[in-house]
Amino acid sequence: MPWFDHDDCSLHYEEYGHGTPLILIHGLGSSSQDWELQLPVLSRHYRLIVVDVRGHGRSDKPRERYSIPGFSADLSALIEHLDLPPAHVVGLSMGGMIAFQLAVDEPGSVRSLCIVNSAPEVKVRSANDYWQWTKRWTLARVLSLNTIGKALGNRLFPKPQQADLRRKMAERWAKNDKRAYLASFDAIVGWGVQERLSSIACPTLVISADHDYTPVAQKQIYVKLLPDARLVVIEDSRHATPLDQPEVFNATLLEFLKTVDTTAQDH
Question: Which helix (H) or strand (E) holds 94?
Fold first, then answer.
């Protein structure tokens, strides 16, 4: 299992397959394990690289403030460490924010972008925004990670046949380092690159679950700000689309990547 060091932090990543690089970035409180239903399929077509973001999974959890630009700088350092050509970059939730940051800061590193159930900014503007974030912030500090994991599992995977996904969610969430989890949570609030979206020239696919935390309408607004983007809505899905609708997700992503690669060859 490979590690590399950047900015006094040892970061864990794994590689599978061969070909054009495809990087997968997980969400808050998660790890590269959350791509388990993508690994066998995507690695047949691409050089697949999954990372544990600083403070998550098997990467170090330094006691410091975290930031989305900092997470993106870690990813940029990994791309340099592996000497990768421009890569397809896929990010789920917080991973989508890291992917957006990379695309505006290091456009030459990104061949295409796939943003899953995410947004280009998390700004607290209205009284309701403030109330929602204060509530989440307080609960994250008061409740145990075990309790949060169980509640999230029930919310993300409510169907009777999803018991295994609920169990995995609760088990994995409980393994988080609470201080690193809270520092990552704090990194999201107030972050944003929405005013820089017009600079993202690469092909972009935005995937939204029909029952994501934020409505599809919010994704439609920012998709219009991207020069070369389209939105796909996946039905009967919640925030963890790669886990609750893996077949549809994998097929949608592969179709997009194939189109990008074919178009690139034609030019």
Answer: helix 94-105
Closest CA to 74 of 15, 3, 11: 11
Give the bridge partners for 16, in sequence order. 48
Helix crossing, 163-174 with 145-156: angle to 10°? Answer: 150
Domain that holds residue 33: 3-122+192-266
Sign of CA dihedral 23, 25, 31, 37: negative
Give pLDDT tens digits for 73-115: 999 999 999 999 999 999 999 999 999 999 999 999 999 999 9
Is 0.85 surpassed by the pTM of this model? yes
* pLDDT tens profile 205-237: 999 999 999 999 999 999 999 999 999 999 999
DSSP, res 73: H
CB 223 within 8 A of CB 208: no
- Report d(CA 197, CA 200) in Å as an integer: 6
Whole-angstrom CA distances from 149 to 56, 140, 214 are: 15, 11, 20
Please indicate, yes or no, if residue 153 is contained in any of the structural domains. no
Cα–Cα nearest to 27, from 234, 248, 204, 240: 240
Provide the number of structural domains found in the chain: 1
Asked if 149 and 173 count as a contact pair (C-beta separation under 8 A), the reply is yes
* Strands across the sheet containing 204-209: 3-6, 9-16, 47-51, 21-25, 87-92, 110-116, 204-209, 229-234
